[in-house]
Write a structure and sequence with these properties.
With about 130 residues, the chain is mainly α. The chain has one domain. Helices cover about 85% and strands about 0% of the residues. It contains 6 helices and no strands. Helix 1 runs antiparallel to helix 6, helix 2 packs across helix 6 and helix 5 packs antiparallel against helix 6. It comes from Erythrobacter insulae.
Length: about 130
């Protein structure tokens, strides 16, 4: 298994992106918008091509790091999932939590975003299993 493989990385990032589209769209879109304190106009005012493009690039970076770790350690399938979800719980969520404390974000906002990270990373790990 190569330290870097294009298709697993793109597929893993794609899975995370799809989870985000569902999470912030049909599942928690209204609740997230309220928790973030954003009006409909504010949500629509951003350059969505830039926002979605950079989101996918960041997700590719996350996928590259996780794939590299998996490729170097050749773990069992259940460990791949533990690594994926564990990265969200042990690194991503605490990092965001620190920023949210200083930004005075609400617990609801934090929980919605944290749930996205856990679910997105689980989806990425599940996709990676298809390539092992």
């Amino acid at each position: 298994m190569s330290d870097f493989a294009l298709w697993p990385v793109l597929a893993g990032a794609g899975a995370f992106f799809v989870v985000g589209a569902l999470w912030y769209g049909v599942i928690f879109g209204t609740a997230w918008q309220k928790a973030a304190g954003m009006s409909d106009d504010q949500v629509q005012s951003g350059n969505m091509l830039v926002i979605f493009g950079l989101t996918f690039l960041f997700e590719i970076l996350i996928a590259m790091v996780l794939w590299h770790l998996i490729a170097r350690t050749n773990p069992a399938p259940h460990v791949v999932m533990m690594m994926s979800v564990g990265f969200a719980i042990g690194v991503m969520i605490p990092a965001v939590g620190i920023h949210y404390l200083y930004l005075r974000k609400s617990l609801a906002h934090f929980l919605i975003d944290s749930g996205h990270m856990i679910t997105g990373m689980a989806a990425m790990g599940g996709v990676f299993l298809l390539f092992l």
